[in-house]
Specification:
The chain is of the alpha/beta class and about 190 residues long. It is about 40% helix and about 15% strand. Strands 1, 2, 3, 4, 5 and 6 form a 6-stranded parallel β-sheet that branches. α1 crosses α7. The structure holds ligand FNR.
């Protein structure tokens, strides 16, 4: 069984990005499990807090990522860039720096996101790239999933109900899983 850890970068109960992550887990192909991780409970990064000890939420999440085959980052877009809460969580996950190779180096990573605007988090996803490069991760570029006008495709319970978007999510996760398995995914032409 391949395990992908998914992280949604919003704390909102009705978060479209958390809903998108749940859809990715639901639509993952056989043999692929998307584990839903959480950034809830991770404090604001503070070097003094770190001196006293890395928070338990951070250590637990780090270990889940270190044991996973890949990381799926589901990012909101705030002011045409990445959201601070998710960057804060990632910053904690890179402490202490001596753990970065074990947790991040060469680990496959895919970006997806949902926004209520038309851009579908394209700018947030682009803003993550230098972060992933700095951590020497292996980004998946074989498909794109920038889900725009999210309020139109989820129902009130946060279930992805739009058939076209369900197909795109399903193709995206399958292509990412192929990339994790083989290092060279087929291009998914429909997932533009
Ligand atoms: C937004 N939103 C937003 N959307 C977008 O497409 N581009 C943007 O630059 C921004 N900027 C932005 C800034 C801030 C501070 C907030 C709170 C929101 C709207 C955003 O897409 C929307 O709130 C989503 O619902 C956020 O994701 P979750 O919480 O639903 O996962």
């Amino acid at each position: 069984m391949m395990t992908l850890v998914g992280l949604a970068g919003s704390l909102r109960q009705q978060s479209y990005n958390a809903a998108l992550l749940r859809a990715a887990a639901e639509l993952a192909p056989p043999g692929v499990q998307v584990e839903i991780g959480s950034i809830r409970g991770i404090p604001l990064y503070d070097g003094d807090v770190e001196e006293a000890g890395i928070p338990a939420e951070v250590t637990a999440l780090k270990e889940r990522i270190a044991q996973a085959d890949g990381l799926l980052v589901v990012t909101p877009e705030y002011n045409h860039s990445l959201p601070g809460v998710l960057k804060n969580a990632l910053d904690w996950l890179t402490r202490p720096p001596s753990d970065i190779p074990r947790v991040f180096h060469h680990r496959p990573v895919a970006l997806m996101g949902a926004s209520v605007g038309r851009g579908g988090t394209a700018l947030a996803q682009a803003a993550w790239l230098p972060v992933l490069r700095g951590l020497r991760m292996r980004p998946f570029f074989g498909a794109r999933l920038e889900l725009s006008e999210a309020h139109r495709v989820f129902d009130a319970q946060g279930h992805l109900v739009d058939e076209e978007q369900r197909r795109r999510v399903s193709e995206f996760v399958a292509a990412f899983a192929d990339f994790v398995r083989t290092g060279s995914p087929p291009l998914v032409s429909s997932a533009s």
